[in-house]
Design a protein that fits this description.
Strand order of the largest sheet: 3-16-15-14-4-5-6
Number of strands: 16
Distance between the termini: 36 Å
Active site: 76, 78
Bound molecules: magnesium ion
GO cellular component, one term: cytoplasm
Number of helices: 12
GO molecular function, one term: metal ion binding
Binding site for substrate: 275
Binding site for Mg(2+): 76, 78, 301
Helix content: 25-40%
CATH architecture of the largest domain: 3-Layer(aba) Sandwich
Order of helices and strands: EEEHEHEHEHEHEHEHEEEHEHEHEHEH
Largest sheet: 7 strands, parallel
Length: 356
């Protein structure tokens, strides 16, 4: 049985400075929904309401409630397990992860980075944080995309890929037939006859877009052409990550730029697997259908992706201030309500590691 998560969320806000009202309806459907009634989100009576300012766990002597209230811990990686520069190490990460496991908790890793496969993360966990992880506990967006195509979309034919080696490797690991990684083999031209001579594979059933340093005109042309068939499925690993500042006057374009280019060329909108969309949770449920959504918490550093993801799948969240979001950002968001607010805030998971 492959469980599928369908989130029917309606969020409406009546905002008057610090007042916001949310209406959310979440329903879980399983493949045999007739036999299993949908689960509804039941908030712990002591859980702070998300429109209030989140409880600061640094100041709380009741950190143990985290262990009491949750069985499954979803960890973002960049900015949580290590710095957003990918090199800064944080203290007590090993104690945090292993301490949770010793307390019988399920620890899963969810990252939107579409450059790497799971094997890269397993090595990085060991090198940066000195803890071990199994491949099935790492839900990188590349692996989740492959899992979605195989187990939920049930693709049997070929997949045209705009993406990294990490994405191509994950598709291969699940036995999916894909092509497109690397430099496009055809001559670059804007002449009609040259473009018409480029061969399109008639067995393509899906187009997938992820991070790709080999992006070029031919790839966008081919993706848009495949997607002119309405039966061709369109998947993107991410769409919100569009740019990052590498240094003074240096902007690196990210996956969202590629996704938007294909969107415009094809006049299609993809199923986006990465956070904050709920499909990543559907993919996790294919591997771990026993996860109790009412006892799951998401730990991340981004209001837009991590805390948004938690809100979309109906779980509580802990925003760590060790990554892309500062305390000032959080307070500004509390006023402006650009994004959902977390349930809790924590300076870093080092604090959690201290009590485990
Ligand atoms: Mg992050």
């Amino acid at each position: 049985m492959i469980p599928q998560l369908v989130v029917r969320g309606l969020t409406s806000r009546l905002t008057c400075r610090n007042v916001a009202v949310r209406k959310n309806e979440f329903k879980w459907y399983h493949a045999n929904a007739q036999q299993e009634p949908p689960l509804s989100k039941v908030a712990h009576p002591l859980t702070p309401q998300p429109w209030l300012y989140p409880m600061n766990l640094d100041d709380s002597s009741d950190m143990s409630r985290i262990l009491h209230d949750y069985d499954t811990f979803l960890f973002d990686c960049d900015g949580v397990l290590w710095g957003i520069d990918h090199f800064t190490k944080f203290g007590n990460v090993k104690q945090c992860i292993e301490g949770l496991r010793k307390n019988g908790k399920k620890v899963l890793f969810v990252t939107n980075n579409s450059m790497h496969s799971r094997s890269v993360y397993i090595v990085k966990f060991k090198e940066m944080c000195n803890f071990e992880a199994e491949a099935e506990d790492v839900f990188s967006v590349n692996y989740a995309t492959a899992l979605y195509l195989k187990s939920i979309a049930k693709i049997k034919g070929k997949i045209y890929v705009i993406g990294s080696k990490g994405l191509s490797d994950e598709l291969d690991s699940l036995g999916l037939k894909s092509f497109g990684y690397g430099m496009d083999p055809d001559t670059i031209s804007d002449y009609r006859d040259d473009l018409l001579r480029q061969r399109l594979d008639p067995d393509v059933e899906a187009v997938v877009v992820g991070f790709d340093i080999h992006i070029g005109y031919n790839k966008i042309y081919k993706a848009a052409s495949y997607l002119s068939n309405p039966d061709c499925i369109y998947i993107a690993t991410n769409d919100l990550e569009t740019r990052v500042q590498l240094g003074p006057n240096r902007i690196q374009p990210l996956t969202g730029v590629l996704t938007h280019a294909v969107n415009v060329a094809s006049n299609r909108h993809p199923v986006v697997i990465g956070k904050p969309y709920h499909h990543l949770m559907s993919c996790m449920m294919t591997t771990y259908p026993e996860i109790n959504i009412n006892r799951t918490v998401m730990i991340g550093d981004s209001l837009k992706t991590d805390i948004g993801f938690a809100a979309n799948i109906g779980v509580d969240s802990i925003l760590v201030l060790s990554g892309s979001t500062t305390k000032a950002d959080l307070e500004k968001n509390h006023e402006c309500r650009d994004y959902e607010m977390p349930t809790y805030i924590l300076s870093s998971i080092e604090k959690l590691g201290e009590v485990l």
